[in-house]
Amino acid sequence: MIRALAALIASLATPVVAGDVLLSQPIDCTLGETCFIQQYVDSDPGPGAADFTCGTLSYDGHKGTDFALPSLAAMRKGVNVLAAAPGTVTGLRDEMPDINMDSIDAPALAGRECGNGLVISHGGGWETQYCHMKRGTLSVKKGQRVAKGTVLGQVGLSGKTQFPHLHLSVRQDGKVVDPFAADGIVTCQAPSTETLWQTPLPYQPGGLINAGFDDDVPRFADLQDTPPEYDMVPSDTRALVFWALVYGAQKGDEIEITIVGPDGPVFTHRVALPKTQARLFRALGQTRPAIGWMEGQYFGSATLLRDGQEIDRMQKKLVIRP
Q1: pLDDT category, 184, cuts 50, 70, 90?
Q2: Could you give the angle at the alpha carbon of 80 between the alpha carbons of 122 and 93, nearest 5°?
Q3: What is the CB neighbour count within 10 angstroms for residue 154?
Q4: Which residues contact 246 (CB under 8 A, 6 or more apart)?
């Protein structure tokens, strides 16, 4: 049901009328594979928060769309930020460090919450703003005309952020516009069909950022920085643990983790999540049996469920050798 709703939203969405700016994806990645949308514009006019589907992928007062990377390692490798529409660069900043806002070394952010980034004017009162870019990567200048798809720089961790992402804000005459619901009308049962995206982007109501094997319960910080990549281990490995890094979880969601070996199931367990969280992880598994692990191929899988319906699933393979 959840996947069907997401597909319906994408299929119904159509670009808005002539005269409005039309946008392309502002980050060089594949949604659902090498990046994901962590948060949308807050459509709730009160103290609460809701995305354009009345889902939980937003927070109070959020004014943009956050295209997130799966790890700091991906950020360091480099992911390009692209101009979403043609226009003229009207302002930029490229001097702030790439550092988690919660770090004791983080700089003062008052008035510089966007971090490194730029603003592009598209005419007709329309402008887009690109935030949290990587220091030293901005490749355009103030006053420069850019075409749609022009490389502007790279995704970073500057400004008021806890994870590497591009925050894209869209405004007309200074007023925030949600590119997923350009008419400003939010109807939970039938999300807006008016979008600013030239090619409608799919909506995913939460999911798995990454998953994999380890020989112990990993640290959350490591999963967000450089996740372990175990694809082959010896038969005397002390434990087989499968972990899952999740975004957009809601209270009552469940994570099911399963490990299957050469002769059948090794471990399976389902846990309920006690609260709504932007990001979290779970790791479950089994210690080594007395005779050691059987050699061969093992498959681990993590499934995120909501109201009993699968939202997302990820599987990885591991080989146990002598």
Answers
A1: confident
A2: 60
A3: 25
A4: 206, 207, 208, 209, 255, 277, 279, 280, 281, 282, 304
User: CA 98, 100, 101, 106 torsion: positive or negative?
Assistant: negative
Reference 160, options 116, 99, 113; nearest CA is 113
C-alpha to C-alpha distance for 118 and 123, rounded to whole angstroms: 16
Q: What's the rounded Cα separation, in Å, for the pair 267 and 264? A: 9
Quick one: which of 209, 211, 19, 14 has its CA closest to 123?
19
What is the DSSP-derived secondary structure letter of residue 291? Answer: T
Contact between 64 and 43 (Cβ < 8 Å): no
Interatomic CA distance for residues 159 and 113, integer angstroms = 5
C-alpha–C-alpha distance, residues 62 and 64, integer Å: 6
3-state SS assignment for residue 2: helix
**DSSP code of residue 38:** E
Q: Using an 8 Å Cβ cutoff, are 244 and 314 in contact?
A: yes
- Residue 173 makes CB contacts below 8 A (sequence gap 6+) with 125
Distance (Å, rounded) from C-alpha 224 to C-alpha 220? 6
**Pick from 119, 166, 124: nearest CA to 140:** 119
pLDDT digits (tens, 9 = 90+) for 34-86: 999 999 999 998 899 999 999 999 999 999 999 999 999 999 999 999 999 99
Give the span between the Cα atoms of 319 and 259, in whole angstroms.
12
Which amino acid would we find at residue 93?
Answer: R
130, 81 in Cβ contact below 8 A?
yes
How far apart CA 227 and CA 300 sit, in angstroms, is 16
Q: Which residue has the tokens 């952010």?
A: 109
DSSP state of 35: B
